Amino acid sequence: MRRPRTGGGTRAVLLAVLLLAGCGVPVDEQPRAVEPPFGPPAAPTVSTPAGRVAQEFCLVRGDRLVRVVRQVDDPGGVDVQLRRLLAGPTAAERHAGLGTALPGALSATGARLVDGRAEVDVAPSEVDSGRSDEVLAYGQIVCTLDGRSDVAGVSFLLRGRPLGVPRADGSLSSGPLTAADYTALTSPN
């Protein structure tokens, strides 16, 4: 009868330990810098949909002007941005309590850029709407268009002639207006 062998398992474990010990990290007498294998890590990138750009609009909450930013496919010119403003707040903006004084308080019919100034055409009012938010309506247009990098002021024309429009302080101006003329009505988002 044969005797079972003993120690075979012990020899295998000992052999494995010796082999693994030979595959370790070499021992240095002093610390050394370790270089990443593929160079420094790349800076994280922010992914935005191709062609989307931020465009600023000025809406109304209560009796205050509030700036909002929308993502649009193409910023277009001042007339395109005016038309987007005239379309009113988006569903999400309405849900956030934002509204508009446009249309109703005034009827803007178009805009163009002339020597760095936005000229906005206004149609004569057929009927007195009874609205008292005319200052907010003009403020919405001025603050929206003046936020563009290519605009250095906004003027209003009625039948091709300069139109005096109210500033935040109630005074009338037919000269180019800027967002600074409505600072008293502008609230932080």
Key phrases:
single chain, 189 residues, alpha/beta, 4-stranded mixed sheet, 3-stranded mixed sheet, 4 helices, 24% strand
Condensed summary:
The protein has 189 residues and is an alpha/beta fold. Helices cover 22% and strands 24% of the residues.
Structure notes:
This protein has 189 residues and is of the alpha/beta class. It has a domain at 53-184. 22% of the residues lie in helices and 24% in strands. It has helices spanning 8-21, 78-86, 91-95, 134-146, and strands spanning 53-61, 64-72, 107-114, 117-123, 154-158, 161-162, 165-166, 172-173, 186-187. The strands form 3 sheets. The chain has a 4-stranded mixed beta sheet. The protein has a 3-stranded mixed beta sheet with strand order 1-2-9. Strands 7-8 form a two-stranded antiparallel sheet. Helix 2 runs antiparallel to helix 4 (134-146). The longest helix is centred in the N-terminal third of the chain and has 14 residues, at 8-21. It is elongated and about 105 Å long.
| Helical residues, percent | 10-25%
Mean pLDDT: 80
The counted number of beta strands is 9
Structural class: alpha/beta
Output the helix-strand order: HEEHHEEHEEEEE
Q: How far from one another are the termini?
A: 93 Å
Physical arrangement of strands within the biggest beta sheet: 3-4-5-6
- The rounded Rg comes to 34 Å
Net shape: elongated
Low-confidence stretches: 34-48
Major beta-sheet overview = 4 strands, mixed
